[in-house]
Amino acid sequence: MAKPRAAETRKRTRIQQEKEDRILDAALDVFSVHGFRGSTIDQIAKAAGMSKPNLLYYFRTKEAIHRLLIGRLLDTWLDPLREMSADGDPLSEICSYIRRKLEMARDYPREGRLFTNEILRGAPHIQEEMSDLKTLVDEKTAIMRRWMKDGRLAKCDPHHLIFSIWATTQHYADFDVQVRAVLGPAKSGEGRFEDAARYLEKLFLDGLKP
Known about the structure:
It is a single chain. This protein has ten helices and no strands. By secondary structure, the chain is an all-alpha fold. The chain folds into two domains: 5-60, Homeodomain-like (Arc Repressor Mutant, subunit A); 72-208, Tetracycline Repressor, domain 2. Helix 1 (14-38) packs across helix 6, helix 5 (90-107) packs parallel to helix 8 and helix 6 (109-120) packs across helix 8 (158-174).
């Protein structure tokens, strides 16, 4: 994972850490709106309320900022799947996973758009991390296959089950404006995520009951 420039030669002070965090937060705003190619160091510096030379003291390039954000994000993004337990009830574990993914969409919309943009560009900055993703998914699909073999879960392709959960839950982050516009003022508040969770639980569980 990329490191801030100020961390290369010395231990960071509290003020340096605060500035790095401010830069990263501003960059997350800029990248999530404009994508990597459409974003500039000048835009990030302006969003952070810093001069360009000051920002470049902490990060040499736009790519260095982006790599650090993506590296941190991917680790966070995998946490909901890591929590799926082989010892739990299969349907309950899948319901919990759906809810955790929706909570990510609700609480981390900027990060969700950043991750989506990276994947759409061919994931150039997280090729090594993609192998970790595959390892984790293979581990969880093996668990699902055991559940199916034991008659505790309806037979299906577990990889495509996970893809379907990703697609339906991530929609609420990537297309939030569209979701709220279609639902209208009466249904577009925070309760939309609970409505989505109940619907997706029914959608998946009706098809997964053994």
